[in-house]
Structure formats: C-alpha cells, structure tokens
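A.,

Following up on our hallway conversation. Structure tokens first:
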C-alpha cells in the first residue's frame, strides 16, 4: 500500500525508516520531510496543516495509510477532516481526532480528565485573568517549588518551575495578563511539585485494545548534567533500566486502562499514539502530561527496538484489531544523541553544509532539521540530526551513538556527551 507520513523531524524519519522495511509498503511519501527522508521516500513540499493539499496528494497518489507525526494538525482536527470527507473516508489515518487531541492541547482538560477517572497526577489549581488575585494569594500561602503551566500548546516551553515566591507571582501575572505564551497562557495551572525520576511510556491504541511500546527516557535540557534551557529533547535511551516489570504493570493498571476507559466514556474514538510523561516516585507512577503523538527523539530509540512489521501494526490499529498483534521487541539497548545547531534553543543559524558519517550495522542516522540545497545536505533547524546506537549493553549503545555524533560536522555543532550516563547506576540491579 502507499503510505504518507506527515512531519519533518527525526521522529518522522524514524517512522519512515521502519515503514520502508515492510514488504507491505509500496510507495512511501513524507510531507514535508527532510534530507534524510528524501533518501528512502518521496518528499512532498506540503505543510502539515495544509489539509486541502494533503487531501489532493492522498487522492492523486492513492495513499491508503496516513501517519500524523506532530500534535499540531491533530489539535487542528486533521482526523476529523479525513473522517468527514466522503472521498477520504476509506483512508486509514493514525492519530486522535480533535476531541482526543485535547489531552495534549489543553492541560486544564487533561487534568480534569485525570481527576475524573482517578489517574494519579499532581494536585493542581487553574487560574484565569479573572482569578489572578486568588492565584497570587495561592502562591503566597503555599510552599514552593511552584510549577506553573500554560493551558495550551506552547511548543514544550509552557512550563515554568521556580522556588521563588515573587518570581512565581510575576510569571503568573505575565502569563495571565502580559500575554506570555499568547492564547496558550490565558489559563494557567499551578501544580504540586512532583519528586522522582522521569520517563515516558507510549501506547498505540485502536480505542479499545492497545500495544505497550518500549519505554524511553529523554534528556530535555541543553546542558550536560541536565542544566540550562529546555529543548525539544537532546537524546533518549530505551529501555529505561529503572522501569521494571512491576512499575510498568502499575502504569498499565493505574494509568493506561483508566485512560482508555475514560476516553470511551467521554465518547472519544481514539486511534493513535498516546505518550504518557511520568514521574516514578518511589516505584509509583504520577502522570506529568499526556501527548497525543510519539516523542521526538524518543521515536528514534523506540523504532529500532520494534521487530514487528509497522505497517501491519498500523493496519490493525485502524481496523480495531490491535488485539490480534503481539508486539515483538528486540531486547537490545538503543541510545540516541541529538546534534544541534549552536545557539539552540535560542537563535541559531540555518543553511550550513553538513558532513554526515555512514551508518554501520549497529547505528542508524535519523535526520531532523536538514534539507537539500543543490544535492548538498545543509542544516535547516535547531535539532539537526539524531545518531542512534544499538548494543547489548547500555554502555555499548551509548558509545556507538556518541562516536557517530562526534563524526557529524557542521559549523558550531553541539551535542551532549552525557546521554544515558545517569542511568548506568540502575543497570544490573
Ligand atoms: P511538560 O511540558 O508538562 O512535560 O513539563 C515540562 C517538564 O517540567 C517536565 O518534563 C518535568 O521535568 C517538569 N514538570 C512538569 N510538571 C511537573 C511537576 N508537577 N513536578 C515536577 N516537575 C514537573
Ligand atoms: N521529547 C519530548 C517530546 O517529544 O515531547
């Protein structure tokens, strides 16, 4: 069958890489894609929110399966658009509709949802411009650290954590009155600070059945030792050595099952990925956030660990037959290191010529912010390229990933040299 992947990051390259290995995949398209996807698929220069353009492409190329990479088109209703258009009704599309995408699109909605269905999460209060004074008072009367979250999508930057009362109050004021984060900040949640260690668990669901995918840990900060500004993600590791079977069972029982039950009760038909950001607090899961898509760069370590044919998995998901699939996973470790442009996550340069090493049997190279200029690969984003290493041990996977990252050359490139190091102490325990 002909397949389309929407998006242009490392996540989408990883999907395309796995899909292209399937004997069921005839022609593979990526829109808009990057220089890496161009090597294994046909890139189409279309934005992910250009629904009419995507419809034309799907019809003219007889595409039968569409995988939506990023959250934006989901929150904007691309799945509703496909379901309500007669000519697209038969096309299988992987992703939730706009109602389901609110789990990511509105933190206020997802918090209310978790509370309603008894899903463990931090206690929180929501404030609006009308209740600003009450919010300021709430901060004054309660101990920190204060976790302030903009309600809407803020490109991963809508969370501010501070111990300082006046900084928390100033931030609340900026968000509610000063337009910090725009419309996304017109409601703000103040959340209890959770202790523990973070990881991400992913499922693919057809609304009833689900597959638990390999879990991952990502590295969000720009600096080594988890310091500095938040980024989209500087690296990832899978499996997560402290996520043992007992913990993952708790995640399924306390989070996954009640979430799917809640979606059903709310009348939401959810077909797609659900990314559950968790805190492991002494062996107990607390949900930090839901995302309605796969993670990036987590996908760059999850895909290389999946053995089962991904086209078969998506077909089953779209047909409500995921219960027929038994997911086969490679036990090996996968570690990815993201090479970024100097200055990221602040201002950075684009268009620099790149030197990229050849992958070998233990490494996979996933392009993120790259493009082709006269057949030459150049940088085209902050997060430029993800180097995934695989190995029987975490140490060997780290070594392979880092060795490849070192070989990527372009002006002012940067990558973290400590991806996975904090997890070594959990290995073989
Ligand atoms: P989010 O955008 O919700 O994923 O939040 C970004 C980051 O802020 C998370 O990955 C956590 O590291 C941190 N964070 C969010 N909520 C909390 C919380 N309630 N307690 C502690 N850390 C949090
Ligand atoms: N790496 C975190 C995310 O994709 O949201």
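Then the amino acids I'd put at each of the 429 positions:
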């Amino acid at each position: 069958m002909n397949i389309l992947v929407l998006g242009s990051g490392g996540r989408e390259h990883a999907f395309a890489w796995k899909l292209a290995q399937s004997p069921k995949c005839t022609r593979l398209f990526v829109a808009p894609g990057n220089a890496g996807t161009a090597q294994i698929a046909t890139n189409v220069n279309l934005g992910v929110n250009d629904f009419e353009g995507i419809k034309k492409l799907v019809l003219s190329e007889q595409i039968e399966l569409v995988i939506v990479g990023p959250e934006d088109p989901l929150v904007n209703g691309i799945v509703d658009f496909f379901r309500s258009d007669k000519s697209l009704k038969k096309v299988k599309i992987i992703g939730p509709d706009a109602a389901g995408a609110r789990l990511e699109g509105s933190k206020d909605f997802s918090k209310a949802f978790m509370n309603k269905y008894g899903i463990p999460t931090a206690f929180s209060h929501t404030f609006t411009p009308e209740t600003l004074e009450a919010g300021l008072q709430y901060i004054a009367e309660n101990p920190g650290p204060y976790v302030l979250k903009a309600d809407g999508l803020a490109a991963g930057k809508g969370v501010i954590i501070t111990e300082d009362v006046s900084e928390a109050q100033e931030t609340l004021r900026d968000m509610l009155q000063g337009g910090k984060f725009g419309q996304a900040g017109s409601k703000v949640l103040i959340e209890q600070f959770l202790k523990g260690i973070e990881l991400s668990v992913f499922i693919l669901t057809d609304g009833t059945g689900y597959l638990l995918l390999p879990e991952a840990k990502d590295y969000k900060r720009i600096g080594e030792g988890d310091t500095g500004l938040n980024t989209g993600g500087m690296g990832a590791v899978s499996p997560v050595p402290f996520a043992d079977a007992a913990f993952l069972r708790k995640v399924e029982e306390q989070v996954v099952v009640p979430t799917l039950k809640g979606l059903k009760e709310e009348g939401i038909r959810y077909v797609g990925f659900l990314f559950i950001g968790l805190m492991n607090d002494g062996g107990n899961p607390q949900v930090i956030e839901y995302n309605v898509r796969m993670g990036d760069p987590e996908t760059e370590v999850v895909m290389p660990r999946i053995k089962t044919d991904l086209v078969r998995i998506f077909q089953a998901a779209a047909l409500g037959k995921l219960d027929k699939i038994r997911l086969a996973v490679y036990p090996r470790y996968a570690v990815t290191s993201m090479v970024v442009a100097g200055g990221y996550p602040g201002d950075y340069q684009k268009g620099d010529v790149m030197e990229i090493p050849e992958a070998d049997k233990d490494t996979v190279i996933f392009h993120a912010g790259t493009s082709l200029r006269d057949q030459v690969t150049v940088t085209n984003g902050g997060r430029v390229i993800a180097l995934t290493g695989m190995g029987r041990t975490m140490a060997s996977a780290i070594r392979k990933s880092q060795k490849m990252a070192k070989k990527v050359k372009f002006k002012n490139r940067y990558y973290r040299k400590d991806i996975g190091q904090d997890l070594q102490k959990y290995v073989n325990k």
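The chain has a mean pLDDT of 95. Curious whether your intuition agrees with the design.

B.
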